[in-house]
Amino acid sequence: GPLSERRLMDVRLGELPAWLATCDFSPQGLLGGVQKAWSSYYDKYINVKRGGPAGISMLLAGYCLLSYGWNYQHISKISFWVSVL
């Protein structure tokens, strides 16, 4: 198919600059890309008939990692004082 309709994983390394030139980097285009990525993730991991808890647990694990990263300095100061006591 046309280069502009291919997904990133289907683009060869030599075609990457041309593929990037076809992308829409406006705020509306970026928002559309985020919506498309979320829809793809939702359809693959959450909105499935035989999926189980895998999609929700991946979201929860990602949230926990981000939360830990944001609060790392605060947590490390607390753990220092707990180890001193």
UniProtKB/TrEMBL annotation:
GO terms of biological process kind: proton motive force-driven mitochondrial ATP synthesis
A Pfam family of this chain: WRW
Main location: mitochondrion
GO cellular component, one term: mitochondrial membrane
Keyword Mitochondrion in annotation: yes
Top-rank lineage group of the source organism: Eukaryota
Subcellular location: Mitochondrion membrane
Listed GO MF terms: proton-transporting ATP synthase activity, rotational mechanism
Transport among keywords: yes
Keywords from the UniProt entry: ATP synthesis, CF(0), Hydrogen ion transport, Ion transport, Membrane, Mitochondrion, Transport
Assigned protein family: Belongs to the ATPase F chain family.
Name of the protein in its database record: ATPK synthase
Source species of the chain: Himantopus himantopus (Black-winged stilt)
Lineage: Eukaryota, Metazoa, Chordata, Craniata, Vertebrata
The gene coding this protein: Atp5j2
